[in-house]
Amino acid sequence: MIKDIDGISVNYEVKGSGEYVFILHGWGANISVYNSVANLLSQKFTVVSFDFPGFGGTEEPPQVWSVSDYAEFTVKFISSFNVKNVILFGHSFGGRVIIKMASMQDLPFSISKIIFADSAGVMPVRSKKQNFRTRIYKIGKFFLSLYPVRKLFPQALEALRKKFSSADYANASPLMRGVLVKTVNEDLTSLLKNIKCQTLLIWGVNDTATPISDAEVFEREISSAGADVGLCKIQNAGHYSFLDQPYVFQNILKSFLKIGD
Predict the structure, then answer these.
(1) pLDDT reported for residue 142
(2) Assign residue 260 a region: left if phi > 0, alpha if psi is -120 to 50, beta otherwise?
(3) HSE value, Cβ hemisphere, 13 Å, CA-based, for 124
(4) What is the pLDDT of residues 196-225, one digit of tens each?
């Protein structure tokens, strides 16, 4: 299905009935990746999965967006369903958006529960090796951006980007590369204390994109504000813990949301 929000055609799906759950996907993903999660949740809830602007079947935003821009857009999308109370499920980048939403004043709906799955939002501590690679990249970028060099070697700068950048960056369009740089460099740790509702953290122990130490920061910061928060660590699972260990992941969700009771 397609819904127009601020001139952007949003690709989305709705399953089930009952209280509304909105699934916010990770960077580079789309609604199809979360079918197993949506199918489980739809046993008790109305589940809305949608592609963020720039992903899946939804067109790119009109300019380089920040996490706040995505949060404001998501609020408008959710509000279009005329709901007063929602549950939010956020994986990776989707978790960033939820953190921002939970910090917004005067939301047109209330958030009763949040589920963070391998969520982003905590700024990683960069190693000396990573800092060195960044330095080399910046030097190379400066040299290859000089007009005479660009004229002689027009593909050299793009080759450098592919060599030194992440797969997410290399696979993104020019505009979405700008979005990626803008969003991943924002540390949202200080906003976690604004989360007041019951919160579940589900994390793959082997997650290297958003390591288990990030989950512990989430747990500490959210609980410090008095919210009810629990952390479930899944063994032998990485950044996509719901795909790596679907049986364990789904049983955790069933327990938390009382599905099947």
Answers:
(1) 67
(2) left
(3) 14
(4) 999 999 999 999 999 999 999 999 999 998
* Packed helices 67-79 and 93-102: angle between N→C axes, nearest 10 degrees: 70
Residues of the chain under the 50 pLDDT cut? none
CA 175 – CA 53 distance, rounded (Å):
11
Q: What is the pLDDT of residue 147?
A: 74
Q: Which amino acid is at 156?
A: A
Q: What are phi and psi of 10, to 5 degrees?
A: -100, 125
- Is residue 47 a contact partner of residue 14, using CB atoms and an 8 Å limit? yes
SS (H, E, C) the chain: CEEEECCEEEEEEEECCCCEEEEECCCCCCHHHHHHHHHHHCCCCEEEEECCCCCCCCCCCCCCCCHHHHHHHHHHHHHCCCCCEEEEEEECHHHHHHHHHHCCCCCCCEEEEEEEECCCCCCCCCCHHHHHHHHHHHHHHHHHCCHHHHHHCCCHHHHHHHHHCCHHHHHCCHHHHHHHHHHHCCCCHHHHHHCCCEEEEEEECCCCCCCHHHHHHHHHHHHHCCCCEEEEEECCCCCCHHHHCHHHHHHHHHHHHCCCC
Neighbours of 85 (CB within 10 A): 11
- In this prediction, residue 247 carries a pLDDT of 98
Prediction pTM value: 0.88
For 57-76, what is each residue's pLDDT tens digit? 999 999 999 999 999 999 99
Predicted confidence at residue 136, as pLDDT, reads 65
